[in-house]
What we know:
Number of helices: 1
Largest sheet: 6 strands, mixed
Helix content: 10-25%
Oligomer: single chain
Radius of gyration: 24 Å
Shape: elongated
Strand content: 35-45%
Order of helices and strands: HEEEEEEEEEE
Amino acid sequence: MKKTSYLLILAGLILAVASCTRSEIADPTWNDPAGFYILLEGSANPAVFFVDGNIHTSQVIVRLTDSKGNRLAGRTIFFEQLRDSLSHQQIDWGYFENNAPTILKATDANGEVRVTYYSGVKYLTGHIYIHALMQVDGQAYRGSSSHVGSVPQDFITITMINSSGSGAEAAH
């Protein structure tokens, strides 16, 4: 019994010493989900449309950086219009510069993408969510149900205000 106790104590000490030798945490491999290493941030200017029957434009800008703040060039970003940030229901209340409700663009040398969003002329009041999503392996994986659950993405909100004063429809 004493031998077993001594052997267990000795094995515990060896394991304790061996497990405390690590002095630096290595970066994870790039084969894992991209969201742990890449930050995608977006904004819209202007972020408010006064819907008055005319088409208005907003510059949507997305910046892509790695975990150390380095800008990432040549990455494809998928843009779509969504009704809200909780579902994947695409809408077409406006359009991008390709006259479609979605667009693909690659980041430039500064890790940025700029797209023009054109408002609709319908008298709506509410929000549009521009969903910017980095493509991984040529696919735009949405949400956490895919095998790449942490894909870099951002929801950029554009608010629409009916400026006519009457006959407004709610966007939601």
